[in-house]
Amino acid sequence: MTGPGPGAILRAKMTLCTGPVDAVFTRLWTHEDPARIVPAFLVMLHQIMRASVPVMEAAIRRCEELGTDDDLIGPLADYYRHHLEEERNHDVWALEDLEAAGFDPAAVLERMPPPAVARLAGAQRYWVEHYHPVTLLGCIMVLESFPPTTEIIDRIRDDSGLPEAAFRTFRLHGRVDPHHSAELFRMVDLLSLGPREIAMIGTSMMACMESLTDCIGSLQPVDPGTLQAA
């Protein structure tokens, strides 16, 4: 009788540790000042999305550098190429959504991403380039595992007073992230993962969860006027 596969092990580990992430999202969705916190959240969403494709491109380059001596490399590179195309331009769309809400793209880009966002992306980039590109799977697992529901998006749209167009890309993620998550966990079961690789992915997953919790938990309301053209 065989035990659980890598996907089941990693999913169970994530499930045991989602409490803090769930808590900060609950506080966000019920924030007392939605007109100021929701724009701040959408800006942060763009900042996180902006890092996704470059990190995957770095992972693909690292796979190519490592060559075929590692049995993981071929399937891993194929997955990153596939998922990169699924995520391509989402940051562009998110910025367009902010513009549709009446915000100036230049003002959005002028805002410095907070340390938690830099940690989220920076840790993954470091592990990809200086350890092993399989680690990035842990972060992708996290980012695909908390899709917003239609009800939540409708509520924050109505409470914030922002137009429907502001939530176009956010709604897209609500629809496609569950499929991307299921696809990833199925793919993980097809990889030649041993205990060491599972631990590597798990460590990356926990680091990403901690950074995501910090990103949302440290979010501060923003004066919408500061995001508009001078």
UniProtKB/TrEMBL annotation:
Pfam families in the record: Haem_oxygenas_2
Superkingdom: Bacteria
UniProt-recorded name of the protein: Iron-containing redox enzyme
